[in-house]
Amino acid sequence: MYGRLEEIDEMRGLAVFIMIIFDFLYMFTAAPPWLKHSTGNGFTIADLVAPLFLFALGLSYPLSLYRRRESRGLVSAILHFMRRSLTLILFGILGEFLVRYSLTIRWGVLQMIGLSSLLSLPFLFVGYKKRLAAAFGFIAAWHLIFLFLNVDDPNLGSMGGPMACLGWMSIVLLATSLMEMYEQKLLSLMEFSSYVNWVLIIWLGVYVCRIIGQLHSPINKWLVTAPYILYSLEWIIPLFVVFQIKEHFDLRIPILSLLGKNALILYMLAGIFGLLVEKNLPSDLPVYLVFVTCVSGTSVMILFAKYLDRKQWYFKV
After folding, report:
1. Does some domain include residue 298?
2. Which end of the chain is more exposed for a tag (fewer CB within 10 A), N or C?
3. Would you state the pLDDT for residue 103?
């Protein structure tokens, strides 16, 4: 079963929706702190955007790979996803250069997604149980590297640099495993009770690992600590279940689906508009004008997403 699943678009759309709001708020002092990234140790809803986006990518990854493998062949499928990952990395580098006018390469969201996807690709050809083991193994490896090597470099950017992709890719591997189990449940190849047990075991494993990890390092988005990644998954996995339940009852959230279908172009445009707002409006804008700016910017992005969907123009991630 390799058809398009609405819940994947909607999860990706939720990440884009939160990101758009953040991009129109982060520069204003009057904006509520819980809609901004945490300034140090801690966690806010804005800190959930990158992990949620990466998780949604992981959900669609095996479906896209299997479809292309059946239509074009294995070699073509592998080369396609390698090119896609490298393209994301190059787009990210170009975007950072255009924004900062600097040859210093800072590691941004697109670079993180591209390299994490590339590193995860070989593991899509093994069973989901081995993939789950690899996910926990890589997050443990990143935790140890973080503790014993000096990776706290401000020039690395907000995504922790290339080395942090060992941690980020655990999200992709875990998402692909859950997606494969979910597909087996839909095809009646896995009992519903067995699927529920697996989801609970995975969530408990994430929770226990996060508790152990916090004995040595904090939840910190800027340092991309292992507890930060794991704590994000503690929220994302139940959210994934909620979207499945919603889909079971044929409930739709059209706005999220619209945003999720063109996540890449909307991400880039939201970043550009956010920079324009930052450069042209004072940071001490009154609360009511902050609200108007956020609502106006978000509405423009939703209308643009609706236009792209009407034209059936989709820029794939």
Report:
1. no
2. N
3. 56
